[in-house]
């Protein structure tokens, strides 16, 4: 490729992004980053740089992060065997101490540092800060005792809107208190959906460890590029335990006023930019 043709290709890419930059300039996008995308330092750096680019073109960004693999590893090191029910981590008092230490003390701090290094004015938060999120204890689908696991009851977006207005990027760990002040472990996908609804986000993006949503798990040809929320709702019972909370929170977010939801493979370099700034996109897009 000659220098001139290389320059023309780059110019064409920039031209393609312009309509999308115009569309989303000044709007809020919530990005949920899974622990898998943060486990690889190189990939985590690319994700942070992509988020910085979104902010630099005027997109107001809120980041919600998980840390499932890291929490499981820390639990095993502490002699606690991780257990899950329908994709939700069973969390006793000892497990909750590990969850808090990893998500708030380690994962949140590291992600804020990467984002700041990429050029963002990132601020680390959890649901405990300024009453941002209030949760209620929840049980498994068959009434199983999950311990200190909760679901989001209330999101108070004032802190987030203030930070966004001042050009800060909130980075939220998925821990929140109950009404009586007991810290609860909340599924990060659920937190992302509830936050997106509360702030009226234009997009909610899940960066996960699969290519998108499959109609038939295991059949690569069944990857769905676009679907409506009612179709996704009808599929919930047939989805894998890991995908079900994500899909349910996507449906809730769309019903709560979020315009679009995207489920992307966070292991693909620049997946976030490809989805937001190109015509074809990747992964699965869910519409109201």
Keywords:
alpha/beta, 4-stranded mixed sheet, globular, single chain, 288 residues, 10 helices, 8-stranded mixed sheet
Q: Can you walk through the features of this model?
A:
The chain has 288 residues and is α/β, with parallel strands linked by helices. 43% of the residues lie in helices and 24% in strands. The protein has helices at 3-24, 35-39, 41-56, 68-77, 93-118, 158-165, 188-199, 229-235, 244-255, 271-277, and strands at residues 28-33, 60-65, 84-85, 88-89, 122-126, 133-137, 149-155, 169-173, 175-177, 183-186, 203-208, 213-214, 223-224, 226-228, 260-265, 284-287. Strands 5-8-2-1-11-15-16-14 form an eight-stranded mixed beta sheet, with helices on both faces. It has a four-stranded mixed beta sheet with strand order 6-7-10-9. Strands 3-4 form a two-stranded antiparallel sheet. The radius of gyration is 19 Å and the shape is globular.
* Strand order across the largest sheet: 5-8-2-1-11-15-16-14
Largest sheet: 8 strands, mixed
Count of distinct strands? 16
Global morphology: globular
Our count of helices gives 10
C-alpha termini separation:
43 Å
The low-pLDDT segments are none
Order of helices and strands: HEHHEHEEHEEEHEEEHEEEEHHEHE
User: What is the mean pLDDT?
Assistant: 89
Radius of gyration: 19 Å
Beta fraction of the residues? 15-25%
| Helical coverage, percent range | 40-55%
Sheet/helix structural class: alpha/beta
């Amino acid at each position: 490729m000659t220098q001139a043709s290389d320059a023309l290709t780059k110019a064409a890419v920039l031209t393609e992004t312009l309509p999308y930059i115009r569309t989303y300039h000044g709007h809020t996008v919530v990005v949920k980053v899974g622990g898998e995308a943060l486990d690889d330092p190189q990939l985590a750096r690319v994700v942070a740089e992509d988020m910085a680019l979104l902010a630099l073109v005027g997109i107001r960004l809120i980041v919600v992060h998980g840390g499932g693999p890291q929490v499981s590893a820390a639990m095993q090191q502490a002699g606690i065997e991780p257990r899950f029910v329908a994709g939700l981590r069973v969390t006793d008092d000892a497990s909750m101490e590990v969850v808090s230490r990893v998500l708030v003390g380690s994962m949140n701090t590291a992600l804020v540092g990467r984002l700041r290094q990429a050029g963002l004015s990132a601020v680390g938060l959890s649901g405990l800060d300024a009453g941002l999120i209030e949760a209620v204890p929840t049980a498994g689908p068959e009434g199983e005792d999950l311990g200190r696991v909760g679901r989001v009851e209330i999101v108070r977006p004032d802190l987030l809107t203030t930070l966004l207005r001042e050009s800060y990027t909130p980075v939220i760990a998925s821990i929140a208190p109950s009404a009586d002040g007991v810290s609860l472990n909340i599924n990060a996908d659920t937190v992302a959906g509830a936050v997106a609804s509360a702030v009226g986000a234009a997009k909610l993006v899940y960066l996960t460890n699969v290519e998108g949503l499959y109609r038939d798990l295991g059949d690569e040809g069944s990857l769905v590029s676009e679907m409506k929320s009612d179709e996704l709702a009808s599929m919930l019972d047939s989805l894998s335990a890991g995908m079900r909370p994500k899909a349910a929170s996507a449906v809730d977010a769309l019903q709560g006023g979020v315009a679009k939801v995207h489920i992307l493979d966070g292991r693909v370099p620049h997946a976030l930019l490809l989805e937001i700034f190109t015509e074809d996109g990747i992964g699965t897009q869910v519409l109201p």
